Amino acid sequence: MRTIELLAPARDKACARAAIMSGADAVYIGGPAFGARAAAPNSLEDIKEVCSLAHEFGAKVHVTLNTILTDEELEKARELAFKLYDAGADALIVQDMGLLQGELPPLEIHASTQQDNSTPEKVKFLEDAGFSQVVLARELSIREIREIRRRTQVKLECFIHGALCVGVSGRCYLSAAITGRSANRGECAQLCRVAQSLYDGDGNCLARDRYLLSMKDLSQAPNLGELIDAGISSFKIEGRLKDEGYVRNVTAYYRALIDKTLEGFPDVRRSSYGTTRTAFKPDISKSFNRGFTEYNAHEVKENYANFDAPGFVGTRIGTLMAQGAHDLRFKLDKGVALHNGDSLNYYTAKGTLEGFRVSTARESGSAEIFQRLPEIEAGTVFYRSKDAAFERSLEGESSTRTLALALRYFETDDGATLEAQDETGAKAVAQCTIPKLQQASDFGRLEQNLRDKLGRLGQSHYELKELTLELPHHHFMPQSLINGLRRDAIAALHEQKQSRRVHVEHHFTDAPLLPEAERHLGFRANIMNRKALDFYEAHGGQDVKPAYEMERPEGPQGVLVSKHCLRFCFGMCHKHGQDGKVKHLRLKIGRTYFDLKFDCKNCLMILEGPVKD
To answer: Would 23 disulfide with which of 143, 276, 279, 538, CB 3.0-4.6 Å?
Structure first.
């Protein structure tokens, strides 16, 4: 039967635990080095702990090894790959093709979205090269995913929630162009989230200090059924820098939604096991987001960005009625209540976003604010970016996950045996010999005692669903032996599940020639080491140049390609029926200018530069 995987992010082992207990079928996490989020490394010991917990539920751990590497780093990364395998990892997510030129541990190798996996030809090449799973480009439509599935068999992974890169992943050099910090090295400066200004060819300012490249967050919540039908195997939540509360809430939300969606797909099931229960009602609108978009899922052109703010504005709570020096009175929207510690935001008359923290909330809809407030116009709309009560509901063990357990206890001539089986299919047997055999004087009490003691599953992740007792001898059974049988059986189940990884044989040396469109990439092949160069040359690469980060090309270059289009946003796109006059456009970021070019046939915008003022 086909399976669907909910893949959640983990900044650290606490976030990984939150994800797993909230229903993730897999987590992706950075190891000690070489992950595309340099600010989120984890020790091998922590990775081992995460793997141990995940495997308890038949879940998997994908470790990011997805930066481009120098010659010196390449062999260190290869050594790390084997250490991660020893720690229990199930898959490595890689970008650098140099890693394919040599030994890798026998686990799944996934093609990072940093490889720009956006065409059937590219995905077919990666499949034939030996990748087990391909992380698709975020900007693909469902129609395009269907076509990739029609022409390939490899497992397909797509993003369904979280921050969107404005540029094509792996081929965005904006950060490197301006700051020298490379997104392909895990050090993106996120210049798409700073204020920019837009000018026409005559120097007229069309937009000043707006967040013109700051994309809204992705949510494919309405499209999960279509994506399953299109052939997706893994649903990925972005957010490897997000905190534990974010991971817990968003994972639980999609767990419930996927389970509901799967009711319409009798031939598809989730890829791991267990029942998740939460002490909160999952609500993605209450965790950090920049507003939501389905992006290009149905090829509907719109403004995918939030020009007004680069961060979390929050959900609307109502409008301001009156104001004092340290307090505000609101007309709250239906169902809204304020809490002590809430964070509120509003836009000033100049369009800037301001905010403050609520010290004391009152039932009347007023709020006391510790700081002295500026004058705010009555009728101003307010938003809540932190719901303190909801945040508190996410703390601690607010999500739990259990496995159904069946036990069979039967007496032997000289002792007893306990058979255990959980819903993952793991089976274990524990046995003991009774030192001094004697028959119990009260058979009913013996049975009740066995049920009580065997059912004490304590801090384990099991929930007893079935207990069978077979007592032909009615042996008196000391409590210590009963407890020992239960502990031994559960420990044996755990050990069995830790050794279930599939041994994957790699045949990367049998990779075919690169598709035609991938043979003339120039610096966009992202080559920083000799083995990556060897790979591209051996597979048909031509005119391949060192990575932008190594040898910056002379003159303006296309440093960012995007489905987001400022010509469309400002009413100049004749392809979509707009009647505004088409103008030459130039974008200013800090002190640096970029010319905007447009590939209208493929509906793409290109930032070319840096250019002189």
So the answer is: 276
